[in-house]
Design a protein that fits this description.
Layout (H helix, E strand, L loop, with lengths): L4 E5 L6 H10 L5 E4 L2 H7 L10 E4 L3 E4 L1 H11 L7 H26 L3 H30 L11 H16 L9 H9 L1
Parallel strand pairs: 1-2
Antiparallel strand pairs: 1-3, 3-4
Helix pairs in contact: 1-3, 4-5, 4-6, 5-7, 6-7
The structure holds glutathione.
The site of glutathione (GSH) has 7 residues, from loops.
């Protein structure tokens, strides 16, 4: 692997952190550029979709959209399972987790405190109790401690990171109801 990677995102965790984790897990060097608000005002118009994250490969190829970048790097770093079906299962779990993320994201897009509280309640009462047993069951059935196959894939990294991040946002305190998922989060 001889590519040079530069990863541009804001100085926050959010979805960009899942991409940084891929680099760190794979021990691949990258330039971790954390763009300030002042810098962003000057560079926004030059970005392909006027949004971050953006990955720059070898100083010339720009790639946007977080999950596109995540999946591209996962393939480059050999974290997409043993065959095409396992790769598809990784994508299934990443997409399912992204639906959970988008539910939580609504909270941050809402400025009215009452509406924000209602979104949070929906996440705690509906989104998590529907999603977490599914992921818990997948881990139980696979029986290897990983979501797909017998070792770490990008799905483990995305799901474990998002469980950690999203439960933290809404102070969800009953992860112990989902022991396989909670252990997986801690292990990964
Ligand atoms: N669909 C895009 C969304 C990216 C996005 O919303 N980026 C936000 C930060 S998380 C952004 O660039 N905000 C700055 C702005 O809109 O000026 C992706 O998945 O990468």
């Amino acid at each position: 692997m001889s590519q040079k990677y530069k990863f541009l995102y804001f100085p926050m965790k959010a979805v960009g952190e899942s991409i940084r984790l891929l680099f760190h897990y794979s021990n691949v060097e990258f330039e971790d550029v954390r763009v300030s608000n002042e810098e962003w005002a000057k560079m926004k118009s030059e970005m392909p979709w006027n949004l971050l994250p953006v990955l720059v490969v070898d100083g010339k190829h720009q790639l946007s959209q977080c999950l596109t970048i995540f999946r591209y790097l996962a393939r480059e770093f050999g974290l997409v399972g043993a065959d095409e079906f396992e790769t598809a299962k990784c994508n299934e779990y990443i997409d399912a987790m992204d639906e959970v993320r988008l539910d939580v994201l609504q909270m941050f897009r809402e400025s009215d405190p009452a509406k924000k509280a209602a979104i949070k309640k929906n996440v705690v009462d509906n989104t998590f109790p529907k999603a977490w047993p599914k992921f818990n069951g997948i881990l139980k059935r696979n029986g290897t401690g990983f979501l797909v196959g017998e070792g770490v894939t990008c799905a483990d990294i995305y799901v474990a990171y998002m469980v950690d991040l999203l439960t933290g946002f809404v102070e969800f305190s009953t992860m112990s109801d989902y022991p396989e998922l909670d252990d997986h989060r801690k292990k990964i």
